[in-house]
Amino acid sequence: MNYLLSVCWVIFSLFFGTQASAEDQVLRVLAWPGYADSDIVAAFEKRHKVNVEITLVGSDEVLRSKLSANQGADFDVIAANTAEIHNYAQQGLLQPVHPERIANTARQLPRFRDYSKLPDIVIDGQIYAVPYAWSDMGLIYDRKQFSQPPDSITSMWDPAFKGRVLAFNTGNHNYSLASLALGGNPFQIGAEEFPRVTDKLVALRRNVLTFYSLPEEAAELFRTHRVALIFANYGRQQLKQLRDAGVDVGYVVPQEGALAWLDCWAISRKARDPALAAQWINFMLEPEASRALSDRQDLSSTVEEPKDASPSGRLIWLRPVEDDQRRAALWERIMSGERPPLRELP
Question: Distance between CA 206 and CA 201 in Å, rounded?
């Protein structure tokens, strides 16, 4: 009798112990605002009987810091643009993904399934990410303050709008913008060009109201400080926010072209359960999740053609830059109010 009870107890423990561990399983997601809304997350949790822990970031710098803090061990799946994916893969923070094992990649538009033609996600023959969402980073302007839409990125430096311009708080993109405004390569700035580009950014700091970090912050500043112009780091997501709030704004892609990002889902090298991470990617490519992204955030998914998109020839897809650390160090000095002595920096 005791033997039978013991056997039953072992079977009971194994069965219910397995059930408990499955329910207690946590998928840790590192993503941008709007990429993992609570109802979407809840649907995934219900289907897979797991918990999902979402960590949101507001800049590439913060994303980079969080992912590298413990060699990627703190997260299972991340959302990042292609330039960041390239850097993370080179640093050994990601593991290859296998799109052929993620059924819903078959739903994606053909141009997003031709991985060899997408920038920076194929390294040494291995695919490190699955495209998810994209947007250009144009200019949002107050229609009441412009008789005609601004046609150039240099409008951000226009003294007529001093104190009424919002730019994004990042050294990486701002160096790219300043180089673009000067007619240079936005991603590869030569050593001899850094002083001129840095001077351009010092001038931008003097012309803006401030540098924002999150789209909600930019929307609030726009409404309360008679802002005329915003560099839309979050793209059309910001445009939708303002229009939903009843603000009369327009959106343009400048004549120089617009920086544009293609965000992807990738799996951390130290993911606890890579198969579950792949299931998350698969789920986010389902029609309901993809449509929610477009309807709620006004971002373009990789599953359906956007209703209103800029001409592809005027988009400048983000690429890895010549020196992230140098840009970040210089930007910190600029934000402090100092004129960076370039010779003292690496």
Answer: 9
* Token pair recorded at residue 165: 């311009």
pLDDT given at position 249? 95
Work out whether strand 26-31 and strand 51-56 pair parallel, antiparallel, or are unpaired: parallel
**Beta-carbon count within 10 A of 275 CB:** 9
- What SS3 state is found at 18? helix
Query: How far apart are alpha carbons 234 and 59 in whole angstroms?
Result: 10
Which pairing describes strands 210-212 and 126-127: parallel, antiparallel, or unpaired?
unpaired
Spatial distance between the Cα atoms of 141 and 146, rounded to a whole number of angstroms: 8
- What's the pLDDT at 15? 46
| H/E element, 165 | strand 165-168
The count of other CB atoms within 10 Å of the CB of residue 337 is 9
Contact 320, 60 (CB under 8 A): no
Which one is the CATH code of 139-252+320-344: 3.40.190.10, 3.50.50.60, 3.40.50.2000, 3.40.50.970?
A: 3.40.190.10
- What distance in Å separates the CA atoms of residue 207 and residue 196, rounded to the nearest whole number? 17
Is the confidence at residue 328, as pLDDT, over 50?
A: yes
Structure tokens at 205: 């700091």
Q: If DSSP codes are grouped into helix, strand and coil, which group holds residue 268?
A: strand
Q: What is the second-level CATH architecture of the domain 2-134+261-308?
A: 3-Layer(aba) Sandwich (3.40)
What is the residue extent of each domain of the chain? 2-134+261-308, 139-252+320-344
Residue 16, pLDDT score: 45
Q: What is the rounded CA–CA span in Å between residue 267 and residue 95?
A: 6
Cα 271-65-301 angle, rounded to 5 deg: 65
CA gap 39, 23 in Å, rounded: 18
Q: What is the pLDDT of residue 5?
A: 41
